[in-house]
Design a protein that fits this description.
228 residues, alpha/beta, TIM Barrel, eight-stranded parallel β-barrel, 8 strands
């Protein structure tokens, strides 16, 4: 399948989550995202209002993270984070599930944790980050099923801050263990067009990326050479 630049742009959440980023950096990142018409910009919680204002009218959503990056905040705090983010203008939330509870086998706690965020943000796209670098295959499968049961829109591989990121095997496993109305997001190590396309073929449909311009410029150049 041949993708247009617009097609791939709408698969990308441009990531602005590094702790050292200034407001000037966030404004520049939002402008880049608007220029390329990506799906969303994922910013730190403190930058949501700035991003929402900057992106207003561009067709690019403002998004943020919840319980990031370790997933260990209490469910009530995660829910409060979600409500605050939505109030500030976030339309997408990437939450980290409680990794320790999942690994410990407490599925009821994990389900309640995800559901707390989903219910705190009605109508908002909620993506559940597993942090697969720390999980077994069985734990990843359970995370998929619990995320869907809780009402999440996406399951997501990684925060980008753990030792490992998205892999083909994980994308295939996650795609196989959620129904078709739940989508898969890859994050961590998605730095080139070839990696993005490979993961798309494996079942991912959204990507967290910091190298957005390089990915989309590469595709534009390839299409120009082939005349497609």
């Amino acid at each position: 399948m041949t993708y247009t630049v617009a097609d791939v742009a709408k698969m990308i959440d441009h990531s602005l989550l590094r702790p050292e980023l200034t407001e000037k950096d966030v404004r520049a990142g939002c402008d880049l995202a608007a220029h390329y018409a990506v799906a969303s910009v994922c910013v730190k919680p403190c930058d949501v209002a700035l991003a929402a204002t900057r992106l207003d009218g561009t067709g690019v959503s403002a998004g943020t993270v919840v319980g990031f990056p370790h997933g260990s905040s209490s469910s009530s705090i995660k829910a409060a984070e979600a409500r605050a983010a939505v109030s500030d203008g976030a339309r997408e939330l990437d939450m980290v599930l409680n990794i320790g509870r999942l690994r410990g086998g407490d599925d009821e706690a994990v389900l309640a944790d995800i559901r707390a965020v989903v219910e705190a943000a009605p109508g908002i796209v909620v993506k559940v980050i597993f942090e697969n670098a720390y999980l077994t295959e069985d734990e990843k499968v359970r995370a998929c099923r619990l995320s869907e049961q809780a009402g999440a829109a996406y399951v997501k591989t990684s925060t980008g801050f753990a030792p490992g990121g998205a892999t083909l095997a994980d994308i295939r496993l996650m795609r196989a263990n959620v129904s078709e109305h739940v989508k898969v997001k890859a994050a961590g190590g998605v730095r080139t067009l070839d990696v993005l396309l490979e993961l798309t073929a494996a079942g991912a449909s959204r990507f967290g990326a910091t190298t957005t311009a390089a990915i989309l410029d590469d595709l534009a150049e390839r299409l120009a050479r082939t005349g497609v």
